[in-house]
Design goal:
340 residues; TIM Barrel; 2 domains; 13 helices; 39% helix
Length: 340
Amino acid sequence: MPKQSKIILAPLHGYTEAAFRNALAECFSGYDEAIAPFIALSPAERINPARLHDVVPVNNIRLPIIPQILGNDAPLFISMAKALADLGYTQINWNMGCPKKSIAAKKRGSGLLPHPDFIDNILAEVVPNIPQQLSVKLRLGRNHPDEIYPIIKILNRYPLASVTVHPRIGIQLYDVKADVDRFATVLPLLKHPVFYNGDIFNISDYQRITTRFPSIAGCMIGRGVLANPFLAEMLSGQILPSSTEQQTHFIYFISVLMDELKKESRSSHFLFSRMKDYWGFFAYLFNDTESVYKEMVRITDENEFFSRQETVLHEGIWNDLTSVDIAFTGTKADKKELDG
Protein backbone atom coordinates (compact mmCIF):
# COMPACT_ATOMS: atom_id res chain seq x y z
CA MET A 1 0.00 0.00 0.00
CA PRO A 2 1.75 3.20 -1.11
CA LYS A 3 1.79 6.08 1.33
CA GLN A 4 -0.76 8.67 0.27
CA SER A 5 0.18 11.60 2.51
CA LYS A 6 2.92 13.04 4.65
CA ILE A 7 3.60 11.31 7.97
CA ILE A 8 4.71 13.54 10.84
CA LEU A 9 5.75 12.43 14.32
CA ALA A 10 3.53 14.21 16.84
CA PRO A 11 4.99 15.97 19.90
CA LEU A 12 4.61 14.20 23.24
CA HIS A 13 6.57 15.53 26.20
CA GLY A 14 8.78 12.96 27.86
CA TYR A 15 8.60 10.66 24.84
CA THR A 16 9.40 12.26 21.48
CA GLU A 17 12.38 14.42 22.38
CA ALA A 18 15.59 14.29 20.34
CA ALA A 19 16.75 10.94 21.77
CA PHE A 20 13.63 9.15 20.54
CA ARG A 21 13.51 11.06 17.24
CA ASN A 22 17.12 10.22 16.45
CA ALA A 23 16.74 6.55 17.32
CA LEU A 24 13.52 6.34 15.32
CA ALA A 25 15.07 7.95 12.24
CA GLU A 26 18.18 5.77 12.42
CA CYS A 27 16.24 2.53 12.68
CA PHE A 28 13.07 3.16 10.67
CA SER A 29 12.10 4.98 7.49
CA GLY A 30 8.86 6.62 6.37
CA TYR A 31 8.75 9.55 8.78
CA ASP A 32 8.88 12.85 6.88
CA GLU A 33 9.42 15.18 9.84
CA ALA A 34 8.54 15.73 13.49
CA ILE A 35 7.03 18.46 15.60
CA ALA A 36 9.26 18.77 18.63
CA PRO A 37 7.61 18.84 22.09
CA PHE A 38 6.69 22.37 23.06
CA ILE A 39 8.98 25.04 24.43
CA ALA A 40 7.00 26.94 27.05
CA LEU A 41 7.33 30.71 27.03
CA SER A 42 8.56 32.30 30.24
CA PRO A 43 9.29 35.93 31.10
CA ALA A 44 13.01 36.60 30.98
CA GLU A 45 15.30 39.22 29.50
CA ARG A 46 17.26 36.53 27.71
CA ILE A 47 16.26 33.07 26.53
CA ASN A 48 18.20 30.41 28.41
CA PRO A 49 20.00 28.27 25.77
CA ALA A 50 19.22 25.16 27.85
CA ARG A 51 15.55 25.60 26.97
CA LEU A 52 16.42 25.19 23.29
CA HIS A 53 18.57 22.09 23.81
CA ASP A 54 16.03 19.71 22.28
CA VAL A 55 15.89 21.65 19.01
CA VAL A 56 19.56 22.58 18.56
CA PRO A 57 20.32 21.54 14.95
CA VAL A 58 23.40 19.50 15.88
CA ASN A 59 21.10 17.29 17.96
CA ASN A 60 18.62 16.87 15.10
CA ILE A 61 20.48 15.80 11.98
CA ARG A 62 18.49 12.62 11.26
CA LEU A 63 14.91 13.87 11.05
CA PRO A 64 13.70 17.35 10.06
CA ILE A 65 11.86 19.04 12.92
CA ILE A 66 9.58 21.98 13.52
CA PRO A 67 9.88 23.54 16.99
CA GLN A 68 6.64 24.10 18.87
CA ILE A 69 5.83 27.01 21.16
CA LEU A 70 3.41 26.95 24.08
CA GLY A 71 2.23 30.29 25.41
CA ASN A 72 -0.06 33.28 25.05
CA ASP A 73 2.23 36.31 25.32
CA ALA A 74 2.84 37.83 21.88
CA PRO A 75 6.11 39.69 22.67
CA LEU A 76 7.59 36.58 24.29
CA PHE A 77 6.38 34.51 21.35
CA ILE A 78 8.11 36.85 18.91
CA SER A 79 11.35 36.73 20.90
CA MET A 80 11.30 32.94 20.94
CA ALA A 81 10.51 32.81 17.23
CA LYS A 82 13.54 35.00 16.50
CA ALA A 83 15.77 32.80 18.66
CA LEU A 84 14.56 29.76 16.73
CA ALA A 85 15.13 31.57 13.44
CA ASP A 86 18.72 32.17 14.55
CA LEU A 87 19.02 28.38 14.79
CA GLY A 88 17.87 28.11 11.19
CA TYR A 89 14.22 27.19 11.60
CA THR A 90 11.95 28.50 8.86
CA GLN A 91 8.73 27.27 10.47
CA ILE A 92 7.43 27.10 14.03
CA ASN A 93 4.25 25.60 15.43
CA TRP A 94 1.86 27.05 18.01
CA ASN A 95 0.42 24.59 20.51
CA MET A 96 -3.31 25.21 20.98
CA GLY A 97 -4.15 21.64 21.87
CA CYS A 98 -2.34 20.51 25.02
CA PRO A 99 -5.07 19.06 27.27
CA LYS A 100 -3.18 19.23 30.57
CA LYS A 101 -5.27 20.99 33.21
CA SER A 102 -2.44 23.02 34.73
CA ILE A 103 -1.55 24.36 31.29
CA ALA A 104 -5.11 25.02 30.12
CA ALA A 105 -5.89 26.87 33.35
CA LYS A 106 -3.37 29.54 32.30
CA LYS A 107 -5.00 30.01 28.88
CA ARG A 108 -2.33 28.01 27.15
CA GLY A 109 -2.65 24.92 24.97
CA SER A 110 -6.30 23.88 24.70
CA GLY A 111 -7.08 26.53 27.33
CA LEU A 112 -6.85 29.11 24.53
CA LEU A 113 -9.73 27.64 22.57
CA PRO A 114 -12.66 29.22 24.48
CA HIS A 115 -11.11 32.63 23.75
CA PRO A 116 -11.13 33.30 19.98
CA ASP A 117 -10.65 37.06 20.30
CA PHE A 118 -7.58 36.47 22.45
CA ILE A 119 -6.20 34.10 19.80
CA ASP A 120 -6.90 36.69 17.11
CA ASN A 121 -5.04 39.40 19.03
CA ILE A 122 -2.00 37.17 19.47
CA LEU A 123 -1.91 36.19 15.80
CA ALA A 124 -2.34 39.81 14.71
CA GLU A 125 0.80 40.76 16.62
CA VAL A 126 2.85 37.62 16.05
CA VAL A 127 2.38 36.76 12.37
CA PRO A 128 3.75 40.00 10.87
CA ASN A 129 6.64 40.15 13.33
CA ILE A 130 8.22 36.71 13.15
CA PRO A 131 10.84 35.76 10.55
CA GLN A 132 9.38 32.35 9.69
CA GLN A 133 6.12 30.63 8.81
CA LEU A 134 3.70 29.71 11.55
CA SER A 135 1.60 26.55 11.73
CA VAL A 136 -0.85 25.62 14.49
CA LYS A 137 -1.94 22.42 16.20
CA LEU A 138 -5.27 22.46 18.01
CA ARG A 139 -8.12 20.40 19.33
CA LEU A 140 -11.81 20.95 18.61
CA GLY A 141 -12.14 22.94 21.79
CA ARG A 142 -11.39 22.91 25.47
CA ASN A 143 -14.90 22.24 26.79
CA HIS A 144 -17.06 21.85 23.66
CA PRO A 145 -16.31 20.87 20.04
CA ASP A 146 -18.16 23.91 18.72
CA GLU A 147 -15.38 26.14 20.04
CA ILE A 148 -13.33 25.46 16.93
CA TYR A 149 -15.71 27.11 14.44
CA PRO A 150 -15.10 30.78 15.33
CA ILE A 151 -11.39 29.98 15.56
CA ILE A 152 -11.41 28.63 12.00
CA LYS A 153 -12.67 31.99 10.73
CA ILE A 154 -9.78 33.67 12.53
CA LEU A 155 -7.14 31.22 11.29
CA ASN A 156 -8.33 31.65 7.72
CA ARG A 157 -7.38 35.32 7.83
CA TYR A 158 -3.70 34.59 8.44
CA PRO A 159 -1.07 33.11 6.09
CA LEU A 160 -0.42 29.99 8.13
CA ALA A 161 1.74 27.15 6.83
CA SER A 162 -0.75 24.50 7.99
CA VAL A 163 -3.33 23.58 10.60
CA THR A 164 -3.28 20.24 12.45
CA VAL A 165 -6.60 19.20 13.96
CA HIS A 166 -6.89 16.65 16.75
CA PRO A 167 -10.63 15.89 16.86
CA ARG A 168 -11.15 15.68 20.61
CA ILE A 169 -11.76 18.40 23.15
CA GLY A 170 -9.22 19.17 25.84
CA ILE A 171 -11.16 17.89 28.82
CA GLN A 172 -11.52 14.48 27.15
CA LEU A 173 -7.75 13.90 27.19
CA TYR A 174 -7.59 10.54 25.36
CA ASP A 175 -10.57 8.97 27.13
CA VAL A 176 -12.83 8.81 24.06
CA LYS A 177 -12.22 8.02 20.42
CA ALA A 178 -11.23 10.84 18.10
CA ASP A 179 -14.36 12.40 16.58
CA VAL A 180 -13.75 11.76 12.90
CA ASP A 181 -17.26 12.88 11.95
CA ARG A 182 -16.64 16.25 13.55
CA PHE A 183 -13.33 16.48 11.70
CA ALA A 184 -15.33 16.01 8.49
CA THR A 185 -17.24 19.21 9.24
CA VAL A 186 -14.07 21.14 10.06
CA LEU A 187 -11.89 20.15 7.11
CA PRO A 188 -13.76 21.95 4.30
CA LEU A 189 -13.91 25.17 6.31
CA LEU A 190 -10.14 25.55 6.63
CA LYS A 191 -8.28 27.34 3.83
CA HIS A 192 -4.84 26.06 4.82
CA PRO A 193 -3.20 22.66 4.33
CA VAL A 194 -4.71 20.42 7.03
CA PHE A 195 -3.12 17.54 8.89
CA TYR A 196 -5.17 14.95 10.76
CA ASN A 197 -4.05 13.81 14.22
CA GLY A 198 -5.67 11.17 16.42
CA ASP A 199 -6.02 7.39 16.87
CA ILE A 200 -3.91 6.10 14.00
CA PHE A 201 -2.41 2.86 15.26
CA ASN A 202 -2.37 0.58 12.23
CA ILE A 203 -2.87 0.38 8.46
CA SER A 204 -6.64 0.12 8.81
CA ASP A 205 -6.82 3.34 10.83
CA TYR A 206 -4.63 5.15 8.30
CA GLN A 207 -6.60 3.92 5.29
CA ARG A 208 -9.85 4.90 6.95
CA ILE A 209 -8.66 8.50 7.36
CA THR A 210 -6.82 8.97 4.07
CA THR A 211 -9.61 7.34 2.05
CA ARG A 212 -12.33 9.43 3.63
CA PHE A 213 -10.26 12.63 3.53
CA PRO A 214 -8.07 12.49 0.41
CA SER A 215 -7.48 16.25 0.50
CA ILE A 216 -5.54 16.27 3.80
CA ALA A 217 -1.86 17.17 3.62
CA GLY A 218 -0.93 14.28 5.87
CA CYS A 219 -1.28 12.59 9.23
CA MET A 220 0.44 13.43 12.49
CA ILE A 221 0.93 10.34 14.63
CA GLY A 222 2.13 10.13 18.23
CA ARG A 223 0.96 7.25 20.39
CA GLY A 224 0.68 4.97 17.35
CA VAL A 225 4.39 5.38 16.64
CA LEU A 226 5.33 4.76 20.28
CA ALA A 227 3.26 1.56 20.26
CA ASN A 228 4.76 0.48 16.91
CA PRO A 229 7.88 2.24 15.57
CA PHE A 230 7.53 0.22 12.35
CA LEU A 231 4.26 2.02 11.61
CA ALA A 232 5.47 4.54 9.00
CA GLU A 233 7.20 1.78 7.04
CA MET A 234 3.98 -0.19 7.03
CA LEU A 235 1.95 2.84 5.93
CA SER A 236 4.49 3.46 3.17
CA GLY A 237 3.83 0.03 1.73
CA GLN A 238 7.16 -1.47 2.69
CA ILE A 239 7.26 -5.22 3.12
CA LEU A 240 8.36 -6.02 6.65
CA PRO A 241 10.81 -8.86 7.27
CA SER A 242 9.93 -12.02 9.15
CA SER A 243 8.66 -11.92 12.70
CA THR A 244 12.07 -12.97 14.02
CA GLU A 245 13.80 -10.23 12.03
CA GLN A 246 11.26 -7.67 13.26
CA GLN A 247 12.04 -8.58 16.84
CA THR A 248 15.79 -8.46 16.21
CA HIS A 249 15.47 -5.03 14.64
CA PHE A 250 13.39 -3.78 17.57
CA ILE A 251 16.13 -4.98 19.95
CA TYR A 252 18.59 -2.93 17.93
CA PHE A 253 16.25 0.08 18.14
CA ILE A 254 16.13 -0.25 21.93
CA SER A 255 19.93 -0.23 22.10
CA VAL A 256 20.10 2.89 19.93
CA LEU A 257 17.38 4.59 21.97
CA MET A 258 19.19 3.86 25.23
CA ASP A 259 22.45 5.19 23.80
CA GLU A 260 20.67 8.39 22.74
CA LEU A 261 19.08 8.77 26.16
CA LYS A 262 22.48 8.39 27.82
CA LYS A 263 23.63 11.41 25.81
CA GLU A 264 20.81 13.40 27.41
CA SER A 265 21.74 12.47 30.97
CA ARG A 266 24.32 10.36 32.74
CA SER A 267 21.80 9.59 35.46
CA SER A 268 20.89 5.91 35.55
CA HIS A 269 17.58 6.89 37.12
CA PHE A 270 16.78 9.11 34.11
CA LEU A 271 17.37 6.17 31.76
CA PHE A 272 15.30 3.85 33.96
CA SER A 273 12.43 6.32 34.24
CA ARG A 274 12.29 7.05 30.52
CA MET A 275 12.50 3.42 29.44
CA LYS A 276 9.86 2.44 31.96
CA ASP A 277 7.49 5.01 30.43
CA TYR A 278 8.25 3.78 26.91
CA TRP A 279 7.37 0.22 27.85
CA GLY A 280 3.82 1.35 28.51
CA PHE A 281 3.69 1.54 24.71
CA PHE A 282 6.30 -1.03 23.62
CA ALA A 283 4.34 -3.78 25.38
CA TYR A 284 1.88 -3.70 22.46
CA LEU A 285 4.54 -5.30 20.27
CA PHE A 286 4.36 -8.50 22.29
CA ASN A 287 1.67 -11.17 22.31
CA ASP A 288 0.91 -10.99 26.02
CA THR A 289 0.64 -7.20 26.02
CA GLU A 290 -1.13 -6.81 29.35
CA SER A 291 1.29 -9.07 31.20
CA VAL A 292 4.37 -7.41 29.71
CA TYR A 293 2.95 -3.97 30.40
CA LYS A 294 2.11 -4.65 34.04
CA GLU A 295 5.41 -6.36 34.70
CA MET A 296 7.62 -3.69 33.17
CA VAL A 297 5.92 -0.61 34.58
CA ARG A 298 5.63 -2.01 38.12
CA ILE A 299 9.33 -2.76 38.60
CA THR A 300 10.91 -0.25 40.97
CA ASP A 301 14.50 -1.51 41.01
CA GLU A 302 16.68 -0.30 38.13
CA ASN A 303 18.83 -3.44 37.84
CA GLU A 304 15.80 -5.68 37.95
CA PHE A 305 14.10 -3.58 35.27
CA PHE A 306 16.96 -3.76 32.77
CA SER A 307 17.46 -7.45 33.43
CA ARG A 308 13.78 -8.09 32.79
CA GLN A 309 13.87 -5.89 29.70
CA GLU A 310 16.53 -8.16 28.20
CA THR A 311 14.42 -11.21 28.96
CA VAL A 312 11.31 -9.73 27.37
CA LEU A 313 13.22 -8.54 24.30
CA HIS A 314 14.86 -11.90 23.61
CA GLU A 315 12.30 -14.37 24.94
CA GLY A 316 8.98 -12.51 24.71
CA ILE A 317 6.47 -13.71 22.10
CA TRP A 318 6.51 -11.09 19.35
CA ASN A 319 3.38 -9.92 17.52
CA ASP A 320 4.15 -10.52 13.85
CA LEU A 321 3.32 -7.12 12.38
CA THR A 322 2.70 -8.60 8.94
CA SER A 323 -0.35 -10.42 10.28
CA VAL A 324 -1.44 -8.54 13.42
CA ASP A 325 -3.09 -5.12 13.47
CA ILE A 326 -2.12 -3.52 16.79
CA ALA A 327 -5.33 -2.60 18.59
CA PHE A 328 -4.23 0.12 20.97
CA THR A 329 -6.36 0.34 24.10
CA GLY A 330 -4.38 2.94 26.03
CA THR A 331 -1.74 3.03 28.72
CA LYS A 332 -1.39 4.71 32.07
CA ALA A 333 0.41 7.43 30.15
CA ASP A 334 -2.97 8.44 28.71
CA LYS A 335 -4.13 9.20 32.22
CA LYS A 336 -1.06 11.38 32.83
CA GLU A 337 -2.46 14.09 30.57
CA LEU A 338 0.11 13.64 27.82
CA ASP A 339 1.38 17.03 26.71
CA GLY A 340 0.96 17.18 22.97
